[in-house]
Predict the 3D structure of the following.
Amino acid sequence: MGVLLNGLDVEALQQLVAQVQRDPEAARALNRWSARVRWLGGFKGRAYIREHSFLIDEPADLAGKDEAPNAVEYVLGALGACLTVGFVLNATKRGIPLRHLEIALEGEIDNILTFLGLSQEGHPGYREITVRAYVDADADEGTLQAVWTETVATSPVGNTLARSVALRPILSRVAS
């Protein structure tokens, strides 16, 4: 293991970047991701991703058991996680040691009544998400702002939320 900066092996990171620069096809496998969610009864489900899994549920005020975050909360968590990874990556590439990083997110659904089938106005997705980064690092304000700007601009989850994505819904009937 090489020199660590922000918990990352700088040499391994540099090797990955160099490999992909030499052979962009080497990164092709990193373009496809998958997940599966199995219903567990009520509004609860379990998501399976690679060798990991997590619960999904609705809060009690939406008739769930409140045993886990709901899907739209996981969207906020996914965006926060993506921005965290991106900030650490971009700071580390610049040689900036981080002491503290926290991403706080708040989202507002356009109209929850459309999800519940009680309205045709608006849509059931987020109208706006506010993201705040709290950083303590060995860099000046301008440098940290440049890292943040690059992080937001290159965030896969952020770009997924900000752009139209083709959804291809396919229903397959299975026997129980």
